[in-house]
């Protein structure tokens, strides 16, 4: 070995090096991963009596430093079919075994992502089989988790919250700003995450870790990277990606760039005729005309393109300090909101234009980690981030010369200080501070399409700022190897200041101020009777503080209704209980089941309202019912998540994930409505044959029917989204697709991936979506790793 303290980890059967094996101190919070050669510098672990070595798919080992030294710093790991001790970070922002976390957490492996070839980060989440994805346009993807969606879910990128003050209750497409090629690990925490992540983490947390710059183990510069290209038939996709890592012993850099180009999406040929819109609107010589499509299965307009760039820099002067800076940039073209183009008025299309302008996201992130055993901490992390979000909405009614443009700009700043202290091997304390500020600027403009003349009009939001300050702690106690207990508490104070422009609407107020706090907590336990059996339970609370979208927006939520500001909102609270178990039978069958129940109290929902004593006003030329977001409801969600893995024989396995959930929500009249964001039963079942150089997978995606009576009351009138049953009522039909994916390693560094999605060319829409999913879709991807 080049260095006496460099360990080599190999497969006991093949003697091949194992990359990304985790080496962890049991007594301290020191975590090291092996490189491409299976090597890692463990000089920071000299003298340790318990060092845990693990990698998904292998039996874990616990050795002392002296034992590793006696074996000439070579460790052999034995493969196994199932590993219950996967390393995760989502629950607490520090690395720990999944079997020590009382919450349900899943990881989406890079190998599965490479095989499935998701087009967007939203599609990447859908690969899990446990996150439901709604789409109203190609440039979108709104996750649903356990009956919650949008601003009741939290997105974290490299530990930084992506949620901002204009995240709305309607469907969101912000997740597509992330580049799936530049993500090295994705985790989903199910249930409350507010103790660590604060507001919005009610239904779950989606945590994305982007590519980490890799240092060299010697004086020689380390260079590695990836080149990829992909095409697919359903939307004439053309994708290019490149990333490059170059590192020395103390400095490392990673550069990533991706570009996607998608044409209009073609839906399947076998399915409900209600989903076919065989025309589109085009302005010809200044006049809006209805154009009949040559191919009625094309969903026009849905084409868009996107570019992502990332640059990360790492400086690690010694084992105690680690500095990482990341720059992220994403920009889309404009893209049509397809479901709005399906709306009709007086027998004609309601809109000639309805599109989102270019969506822009930029983030600067500095993360400083200091590892040193002191009285206050063993590890200190400081994370500073600045983000900028830009988005816009552009619409124009059919045969109307006035185009309306509403632009939003949000500057988001955050600072986190996280500390970890191992009091002893049985007791670990995690605690921290957080500050978040969002500045919102909103502009409204009207433009004459003939003269080009522009006028100032009502903006979507008031100019506002939203502030959040928090202190939090999480405590882990392991009285024995079989039992782990965790508890946590967080106090969050939030401030909102909004200034309203009454030039266009006579609001009975000029400003809104919110000054309030929220206290949340959790307590959970994990019991491991033996190495093949895990039982976990968790009770947790979560909250969502009112943001600028809740308090201050004004827009047409649906025909004949208009939402107006409400400055009297308070936070909503969720109370959740989980019970789960995982069991491995004879190293060939693994079953995991989790049951959950969530109560959302003081829920912020859209309800009828009055403005200056009036329950209706003229908006956009239509007499519209006045509505506002109010703390006016209680909602419940309960369900089951079940998974199965079956190893039939060498290289052949079956996996299946099933999600069943029911949600209910109070209405104004005290009646109960099904919850909008509780998806019908859905899941995926996969049959995989995996050789060393070749993998083939056949799988089925499916969703159960949602009848008209089972739809949310607010959804039943949306004929532009749903199919019609025999009685002419809206409903969401059941569907399933058959799919085939393959991966072949041609040379040591060259890979070919391909497949066919929706083999039988089904025409279907995922529940609540305004855009049909792709019809039969052929995919081919070429990758060169070096």
UniProtKB/TrEMBL annotation:
Keyword field: Cell outer membrane, Membrane, Receptor, Signal, TonB box, Transmembrane, Transmembrane beta strand, Transport
Coiled-coil intervals: none
GO BP annotations listed: siderophore transmembrane transport
GO CC, any one term: cell outer membrane
Domain TonB-dependent receptor-like beta-barrel: 323-759
Membrane topology summary: Multi-pass membrane protein
An MF annotation (GO) of this entry: siderophore uptake transmembrane transporter activity
All copies of domain TonB-dependent receptor plug, residue ranges: 99-205
Locations listed in the record: Cell outer membrane
Family: Belongs to the TonB-dependent receptor family.
Protein name: TonB-dependent receptor
Phylogenetic classification of the source organism: Bacteria, Pseudomonadati, Bacteroidota, Cytophagia, Cytophagales
């Amino acid at each position: 070995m080049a260095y006496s303290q460099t360990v080599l980890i190999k497969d006991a059967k093949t003697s091949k090096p194992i990359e990304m094996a985790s080496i962890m101190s049991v007594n301290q919070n020191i975590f090291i991963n092996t490189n491409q050669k299976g090597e890692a510098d463990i000089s920071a672990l000299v003298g340790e009596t318990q060092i845990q070595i693990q990698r998904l798919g292998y039996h874990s080992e616990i050795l002392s430093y002296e034992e590793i030294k006696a074996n000439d710093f070579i460790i052999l790991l034995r493969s196994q079919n199932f590993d219950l001790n996967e390393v995760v970070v989502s629950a607490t922002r520090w690395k720990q075994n999944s079997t020590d976390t009382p919450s349900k957490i899943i990881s989406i492996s890079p190998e599965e992502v490479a095989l499935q070839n998701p087009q967007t980060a939203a599609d990447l989440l859908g690969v899990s089989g446990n996150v439901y994805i709604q789409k109203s346009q190609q440039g979108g993807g709104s996750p649903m988790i356990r009956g919650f969606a949008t601003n009741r879910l939290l997105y974290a990128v490299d530990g930084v919250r992506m949620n901002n003050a204009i995240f709305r209750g309607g469907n969101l497409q912000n997740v597509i700003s992330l580049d799936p090629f530049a993500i090295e690990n994705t985790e989903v925490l199910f249930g409350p995450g507010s103790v660590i992540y604060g507001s919005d983490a009610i239904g779950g947390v989606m945590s994305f870790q982007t590519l980490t710059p890799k240092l060299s183990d010697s004086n020689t510069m380390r260079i590695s990277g990836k080149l990829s290209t992909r095409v697919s038939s359903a939307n004439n996709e053309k994708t290019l990606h490149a990333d490059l890592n170059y590192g020395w012993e103390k400095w490392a850099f990673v550069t990533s760039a991706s570009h996607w180009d998608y044409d209009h999406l073609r839906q399947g040929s076998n399915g409900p005729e209600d989903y076919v819109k065989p025309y589109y609107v085009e302005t010809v010589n200044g006049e809006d005309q209805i154009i009949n499509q040559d191919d009625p299965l094309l969903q026009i307009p849905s084409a868009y393109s996107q570019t992502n760039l990332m640059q990360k820099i790492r400086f690690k002067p010694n084992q105690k300090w680690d500095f990482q800076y990341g720059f992220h940039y994403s920009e889309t073209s404009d893209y049509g909101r397809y479901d709005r183009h399906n709306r009709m008025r007086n027998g004609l299309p309601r809109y000639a234009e309805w599109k989102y302008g270019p969506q822009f996201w930029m983030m600067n992130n500095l993360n400083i980690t200091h590892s040193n055993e002191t009285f206050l901490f063993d590890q200190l992390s400081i994370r500073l981030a600045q983000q900028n979000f830009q988005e816009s909405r552009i619409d124009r009614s059919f045969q109307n010369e006035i185009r309306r443009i509403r632009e939003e700009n949000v500057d988001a700043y955050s600072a986190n200080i996280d500390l970890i202290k191992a009091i002893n091997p049985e007791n670990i304390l995690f605690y921290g501070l957080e500050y978040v500020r969002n500045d919102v600027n909103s502009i409204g403009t009207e433009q004459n399409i003939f003269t080009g003349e522009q006028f100032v009009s009502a903006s979507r939001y008031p100019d506002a700022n939203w502030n959040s300050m928090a202190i939090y702690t999480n405590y882990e106690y392991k009285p024995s190897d079989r039992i782990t207990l965790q508890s946590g508490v967080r106090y969050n104070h939030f401030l909102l200041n909004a200034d309203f422009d009454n030039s266009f609407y006579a609001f009975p107020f000029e400003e809104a101020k919110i000054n309030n706090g929220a206290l949340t907590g959790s307590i959970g336990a994990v019991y491991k009777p033996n190495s093949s059996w895990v039982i976990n339970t968790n009770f947790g609370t979560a909250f969502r503080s009112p943001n600028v979208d809740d308090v201050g927006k004004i827009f047409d939520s649906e025909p004949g209704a208009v939402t107006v500001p409400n400055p009297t909102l308070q936070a909503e609270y969720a109370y959740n209980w989980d019970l789960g178990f995982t069991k491995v039978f004879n190293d060939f069958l693994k079953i995991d089941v989790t049951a959950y129940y969530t109560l959302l109290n003081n829920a912020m929902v859209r309800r009828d309202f009055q403005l200056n004593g009036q329950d209706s006003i003229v908006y956009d030329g239509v007499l519209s019912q006045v509505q506002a977001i109010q703390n006016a409801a209680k909602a419940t969600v309960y369900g089951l998540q079940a998974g199965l893995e079956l190893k039939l024989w060498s290289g052949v396995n079956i996996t299946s994930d099933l999600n069943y959930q029911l949600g209910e929500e109070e209405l104004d009249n005290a009646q109960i409505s099904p919850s909008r964001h509780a998806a019908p039963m859905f899941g995926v079942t996969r049959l995989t044959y995996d050789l060393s150089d070749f993998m083939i997978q056949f799988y089925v995606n499916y969703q159960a029917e949602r009848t008209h009576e089972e739809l949310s009351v607010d959804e039943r009138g949306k004929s532009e989204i749903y199919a019609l049953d025999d009685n002419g009522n809206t409903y969401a039909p059941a569907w399933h697709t058959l799919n085939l994916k393959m991966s072949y390693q041609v040379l040591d560094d060259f890979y070919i991936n391909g497949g066919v999605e929706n083999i039988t060319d089904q025409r279907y829409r995922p529940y609540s979506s305004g855009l049909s999913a792709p019809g039969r879709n052929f995919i081919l991807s070429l990758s060169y790793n070096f």
